[in-house]
Amino acid sequence: MTNPLFKALPSDFNKQDFIAFHHRDEHEVAERYADNVIEKGLIWGAYPARLCFDFNDVNRVQVSLHCDAEKASIDSAKLSQLADHMLGLDQRIEAFERFCSRQNTPFSHLVQQQKGLRIPQSASPFEAFSWAIIGQQISVKAAISIRRRFIQTFGMEHSSGLLCYPTAESLQHATPESLQASGLSNSKAATLLLLAEHICQQKLVWPSQLDHTIIGAFSKQLLALKGIGPWTVSYGLLRGFGWLDGSLHGDVAVRRHLSSLLATPTVMDAKATEQWLADYAPWRALAGAHLWAMGSASGY
């Protein structure tokens, strides 16, 4: 176990958003919540580990990592960076909120009501993109069920009993049939294996820096993989990298909530939603997240 880290939380930080996202599966195979503490199983290096976020202090969170291997190297700086990332503390939301505050629209009022909204992050880019692939064109409830079976099949167990979310390396010897047995369709199984193969063979390298040029080039690489489209790219970048400018115009919940907010006679189509979101660049995905939050954003 590392010495615990203490992270100061902004006054507008909403811990319930973080808890809801990471506790979206009530079966608690890989994440569990009790007594104001979120525990998550993940692979640290090559070893199973349990990452804890303790919210019992009012203005800060205590972060600790419990690794099963005594010889595992736990870099406190790396852990601190991961905690900032997962909590969304590295997301620059203030400029977006100032931009919206200068407007007088239904959406600007919504942003004011939801001030401080940050997007909780997956523990790794692979977790974010695999979750996006699993969730393509199905309900959140169905996606959570498939995710659970995927983790049960391919996840490594930590001594606490939590399963660790699979890595790309976990799928190196997986077969399409084993993924289909977890509930994935033939096409999703093929896409997930293709993504894992590209990562393991370093044909696809996660970007270490983020700007529009790098993200644009990386997005083209992802879109070249069969089964990965614009929504999957934008969602994976949002949940895996905290990239706030992907366009979620293809997201059914975004379109439904936007139509409700603007009181349109019918649900807005993807093109109209894309045009509306364009006004909020470079924070289009953050705008989409505010629309998610009109309902329950826990599973998105």
Whole-number tally of structural domains: 2
Going across the major beta sheet, what is the strand order?
1-5-4-3-2
Which shape, going by the Cα principal axes?
A: globular
First-residue to last-residue Cα separation:
31 Å
Count every beta strand, where a strand is a DSSP E run of 2 or more residues.
Answer: 7
Using only C-alpha atoms, the radius of gyration works out to 19 Å
Task: Indicate the low-confidence ranges by residue numbers.
Answer: none
Could you please describe the fold and organization of this structure?
With 300 residues, this protein is α+β, with helices and mostly antiparallel strands. It has two domains: 5-90, DNA-3-methyladenine glycosylase AlkA, N-terminal domain (TATA-Binding Protein, 2-Layer Sandwich); 125-292, Endonuclease III, domain 1 (Orthogonal Bundle), CATH 1.10.340. It contains 13 helices and seven strands. The chain has helices spanning 15-22, 76-87, 94-101, 106-113, 125-134, 140-154, 176-181, 186-200, 212-223, 230-241, 252-262, 270-278, 284-292; strands at 5-8, 31-34, 37-44, 47-54, 60-67, 156-157, 163-164. The strands form two sheets. The chain has a five-stranded antiparallel beta sheet with strand order 1-5-4-3-2, with helices on one face. A two-stranded antiparallel sheet has the order 6-7. Helix 5 packs antiparallel against helix 8 (186-200), helix 5 (125-134) packs antiparallel against helix 10 (230-241) and helix 11 crosses helix 13. The radius of gyration is 19 Å and the shape is globular. The two termini are 31 Å apart. The model has no long low-confidence stretch (mean pLDDT 95). Residues 134-296 form the HhH-GPD domain. This is DNA-3-methyladenine glycosylase II.
